[in-house]
Amino acid sequence: xxxxxxxxxxxxxxxxxxxxxxxxxxxxxxxxxxxxxxxxxxxxxxxxxxxxxxxxxxxxxxxxxxxxxxxxxxxxxxxxxxxxxxxxxxxxxxxxxxxxxxxxxxxxxxxxxxxxxxxxxxxxxxxxxxxxxxxxxxxxxxxxxxxxxxxxxxxxxxxxxxxxxxxxxxxxxxxxxxxxxxxxxxxxxxxxxxxxxxxxxxxxxxxxxxxxxxxxxxxxxxxxxxxxxxxxxxxxxxxxxxxxxxxxxxxxxxxxxxxxxx
Length: 262
What we know:
Elements: H1 5-11, E1 17-32, H2 42-51, H3 54-62, E2 68-69, H4 97-107, E3 113-119, H5 123-137, E4 142-148, H6 150-157, E5 165-171, H7 193-203, H8 208-225, E6 229-241, E7 244-245, E8 248-250, E9 252-254, E10 259-260
Parallel strand pairs: 3-4, 3-5
Antiparallel strand pairs: 1-5, 1-6, 2-6, 7-10, 8-9
C-alpha cells in the first residue's frame, strides 16, 4: 500500500503484479508562515502564487502524469460535485516570474534569507521543495532549504519561529471547515476575521445546497488572503498480485470481500 511512485513504476514491469491507482487521495500544498517573517505580508504570498510552476513541481514529485493532476480548487477533484468554484482560478499556476520580480521590487525585498523546511521521509515533499527552491532563486530570492526527519518536521511546522515556508500533503477532508491550514495555531498560522466569519456562516446554513454560495466566497477569500497555495493533487499507488480480486478503496484499502484467487 502507498508505494513510492519510483518503486511502483519498477514493479509495474512485473507481469504478475497490478498497480491499483487511487485517484486524488491528497493535495500537495505550499504553506507560508503568516505569523512571522517575510510571508506575513500578503504581497509576499502573491509572489509565491505568481512564480509557481505547478507542472514542473508535480512532475518532479510524482514522475508520471498518471499519478497527479493540476487543479485550482481548495477541495479534491472527487469532491467537485459538492465543492466547486471558479473563483481565483486565474491565479493558479501562473508561471509568471516577471510578475513575481515586480512584486518583490514593490515590497522592497533585499536578499533576506528565506527558510524552507522539508523532510525526506516523503520523497514528494523533498522533490517538490527542491524544485520550488530553484524557482524562487531564479527570481532573485535567497532560499535556504533545511531538511529534517519527519517527526522533527512535524514539530517545526507548529513553531512560528522555525520557518518561512514548507510543502506538505493535505489529505481528504469532509468539508472546507476541516482544512488544517485554516487554524491559528498550526499549518502556517492563519489569522483572518473574514475567514472566521465565513466558516461560521458556512456551518450555520440550513441545508447542503445553501453552503455552496458560501463556499464560493470562501474560495475567493482563499486566493486573496493566500493561507496556502495548492500545487496539485496526487494519486496513490497500491500494488497487488494479479490473483487478488475485489480490491476496493475509499481513501484507504477496504479489505473486506477481497479474495486471493490463486
